[in-house]
Amino acid sequence: MGMEPSLAASDGRRALAGPYQRLALASLSPTPTPTSFPPPPPPPSFPKKFPLPIRSPAAAAVLASSGALYFPMEAATSGAEEVEEEKKAEFDASEIEYASYGGEHHLPLIMSLVDQELSEPYSIFTYRYFVYLWPQLSFLAFHKGKCVGTVVCKMGEHRSTYRGYIAMLVVIKPYRGKGIATELVSRSISVMRESGCEEVTLEAEVTNKGALALYGRLGFIRAKRLFRYYLNGVDAFRLKLLFPQPELHPSLVMMANDDASQRHPANRPLEEIPEEQERDNSSMVKSAGNNWRRQQE
């Protein structure tokens, strides 16, 4: 009898009885340790592309093992080599071929160059407005079949002046500084002058030092500054080229003045004045005299 209390105190699980025995034993038992775990969810799948090329092989290996986005080393290297090749474009000026706008097959070439290099967006209707109405003023430059530059212009009446306008001029970067832009603009200006234009105008960004220097060498002057002219908020210079008017020899000017004075009726002898004109002149004199008499009366 004296052992039972001590047994109950030392081992509570054996002392419990009745309907709550199973519940109590479960609560007092230690938490079982699992022998296996469920497999982790698979990592999300990403395309193996990275916004910037990875040039280091070690960094590329780490990123590839971690599932990060990256460019493969082959693509990054080939892209760098292609850019380097474009920067080192070497050619002779005689290799550049120039052609005026020849039809619809030239339009995509012009659009591609302008959209790639210029800051202002243009719709296809703008391009067609220029090249359809003034195809003789648009020129393209080719190097071994590749279009590397273009100029697009127009001409027409402007306030009592027949004026030419240079709308677009593009030469891709690897071919700049070789005189291609100068040749393109010169060809367009020559056609404008032969067509009777008295001046040529255009707009250029104030930050475009290369274009300003080019047009300055061709004789353009800065006529006006247009504030926030472009969509990117940059100011523009309006440049103007004035064609010199042909000067007449002084003897020709004197002959023209003498001829004009001789044709004037007041300087002609009376016998050379037609009879009808003489009657008209006399009637005018009589009417003037009558008016003077009425005023005196």
Question: What is the gist of this entry?
Answer:
The chain has eleven helices and seven strands.
SSE map:
Elements: H1 3-10, H2 12-15, H3 21-28, H4 57-66, H5 73-87, E1 96-100, H6 107-117, H7 124-133, E2 139-143, E3 146-158, E4 161-171, H8 180-194, E5 199-205, H9 209-217, E6 221-226, E7 236-242, H10 250-263, H11 275-296
Parallel strand pairs: 4-5
Antiparallel strand pairs: 1-2, 2-3, 3-4, 5-7, 6-7
Biased composition (Pro residues): 31-46
Domain N-acetyltransferase: 94-244
Region (Disordered): 21-49, 260-297
Please list the strands of the largest sheet in the order they lie side by side: 1-2-3-4-5-7-6
- What is the helix tally? 11
CATH architecture of the domain at 93-242: 3-Layer(aba) Sandwich
Mean of pLDDT: 74
What proportion of the residues form beta strands (DSSP E)?
15-25%
- In CATH terms, what is the fold-level topology of the domain at 93-242? Aminopeptidase
Structural class: alpha+beta
Q: Could you tell me the number of beta strands?
A: 7
Helix proportion range: 40-55%
CATH class of the domain at 93-242: Alpha Beta
Catalogue the unreliable spans. Answer: 3-16, 46-64, 66-82
Net shape: elongated
In sequence order, what are the helices and strands, one letter per element? Answer: HHHHHEHHEEEHEHEEHH
Q: Please summarize the sheet with the most strands.
A: 7 strands, mixed
In CATH, what is the homologous superfamily of the domain at 93-242?
Gcn5-related N-acetyltransferase (GNAT)
Gap between N and C termini, in Å?
170 Å
Q: Radius of gyration, Cα only, in angstroms?
A: 45 Å
GO molecular function: protein-N-terminal amino-acid acetyltransferase activity
Biased composition (Polar residues): 282-297
Keywords: Acyltransferase, Transferase
Organism: Eucalyptus grandis
